Known about the structure:
Elements: H1 2-28, E1 40-41, E2 44-45, H2 46-64, H3 67-80, H4 86-114, H5 123-148, H6 153-159, H7 169-183, H8 192-248, H9 259-285, H10 288-310
Antiparallel strand pairs: 1-2
Amino acid sequence: MEAGRGRAARAVVTVGAVAAGAGLAAAGFAGRPAALADVTWYGVGALWAVWLPVAVGLLLTWVLGSRTGQVDLDLRVREAMEGHPVRLELGLLVAMLIGYALGTAGLSTVIRQVSEELPSAVALPVTRLVFLFVLPVLFVDQGGFSTSGHGTRMPALSLAVREPWRWLGLVTVAAVGAPLLVDLEPSDAPSPTGAFLVVLAVLVGVSAIEEIFFRGMVQTRLELLTGRTGAVAVTALLYALAQAVSSHFNTYGPLVGEGVAEQVSVAVVTYGVQGLLLGYVWIRYRNMWINTLVHGVPLVLATLPTVAGQGGLG
């Protein structure tokens, strides 16, 4: 009986997350159904930049993922999470996500008032680092270890990857990056120094931080409460909403849309869809290096033309 109620609750969470995402996606395009065909991601059509790569990535991850190794990996994840006050930790993570949104808005406003030359987008690296990495590590990982004595084995499990099959996700990395690489013109390439700085800024300052927060922390804990499917769907939705906030204050890579509602819709059908792939890759491999690359490689390739055109770090 308890198992049946648990399955029903997990199904409700999954359906609710999917319905919420679909509702947000539809709301922004209400009365403009053709606008969906015009959605772009960093100037590239969403079909080639997001939807097709994600579909291929999901298929490859499903085909290549080791089912035998998966059972053992799932057991190791549950053992690593033993003793964690999951609901309390999720509450703290949601609070930090809200702090990220409010902090970004507040700091961007302060920057605009202090200096007209300094772009307000510089607020994003600061608030991302503070609210999505420093505070979660201090109060959820290390803080939880100090107060409740639970282990901190999950970071080691996701970073010290010794099983060869858990690196098969590199095939998915190639699949999501190839369409953007084909679209990149030679004239779009920045200098070697500029390219290096883009790779460093994106992989370390964006992708790694966001993957550790959303997949490593939020989704892993949600899985214990809602099951895999619900956790992937809810995390993808939260990820899309966070990207809608980021893009609203990002002068280098804003979401294209008429008004806030359409921008949120664009975030759901681009970043939200990407979040589904990232969540599934995390379930299959629990390899933070792979997740960072699946997240970051398309972003690096999409950002290079912006850097070349503006002469800075897009």
